[in-house]
């Protein structure tokens, strides 16, 4: 797994590529989220368009990040789910837990509408 970050004021869009299936990949993601939060950014959008698969470890990590960000007054949003990710989130019913947007721009806009 690798990732790219795009910053919009106090919002970061993290585009994930590859797979999130091993504990090493989860730890790398944990470190990335921790660094974002250490910079006082509590609004994260994960773009899953190029994510091939995510294990239950990854799903659990996303739930943990969302909870942590919400407790800090922020949120975690998802966007651009490809067909595999849509199926995974639907099967696990996590599509009813996470706010999911069609593209990163809509997700970022949803933060700025709430903030203003």
What does this protein look like?
The protein is globular, with a radius of gyration of 13 Å. A five-stranded mixed β-sheet has the order 1-2-3-4-5. The chain has one domain: Transcription Regulator spoIIAA, CATH 3.30.750. Helix content is 46%, strand content 32%. α1 packs parallel to α2. β2, α1 and β3 form a beta-alpha-beta unit. It has four helices and five strands. The relative contact order is 0.18. With 116 residues, the protein is α/β, with parallel strands linked by helices.
In summary, what is this structure?
The chain is of the alpha/beta class and 116 residues long.
List the defining traits of the structure above.
single chain, about 120 residues, alpha/beta, Transcription Regulator spoIIAA, five-stranded mixed sheet, about 45% helix
- Largest β-sheet summary: 5 strands, mixed
Rounded to an integer in angstroms, the radius of gyration calculated over CA atoms is 13 Å
- The oligomeric state of the chains shown is single chain
Reading side by side through the largest sheet, how are the strands ordered?
Answer: 1-2-3-4-5
Q: Calculate the mean pLDDT score and round it.
A: 94
Number of domains: 1
Q: Please name the CATH architecture.
A: 2-Layer Sandwich
Number of strands: 5
How would you describe the shape?
globular
User: Low-confidence parts, pLDDT < 50 over ≥5 residues?
Assistant: none
Give the DSSP E fraction (strand runs of 2 or more residues). 25-35%
Q: What structural category arises from helix and sheet content?
A: alpha/beta
Instruction: Supply the CATH superfamily name.
Output: STAS domain
Gap from first CA to last CA: 35 Å
């Amino acid at each position: 797994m690798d990732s790219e970050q795009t910053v919009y004021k106090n919002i970061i869009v993290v585009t994930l590529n590859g797979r999130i299936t091993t504990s090493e990949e989860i730890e790398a993601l944990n470190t990335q989220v921790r660094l974002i939060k250490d910079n006082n950014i509590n609004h994260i959008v994960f773009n899953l368009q190029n994510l091939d698969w995510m294990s239950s470890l990854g799903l659990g990590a996303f739930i943990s990040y969302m909870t942590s960000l919400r407790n800090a007054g922020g949120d975690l949003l998802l966007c651009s789910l490809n067909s595999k990710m849509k199926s995974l989130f639907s099967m696990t019913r996590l599509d009813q837990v996470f706010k999911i947007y069609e593209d990163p721009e809509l997700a970022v806009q949803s933060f700025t509408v709430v903030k203003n």
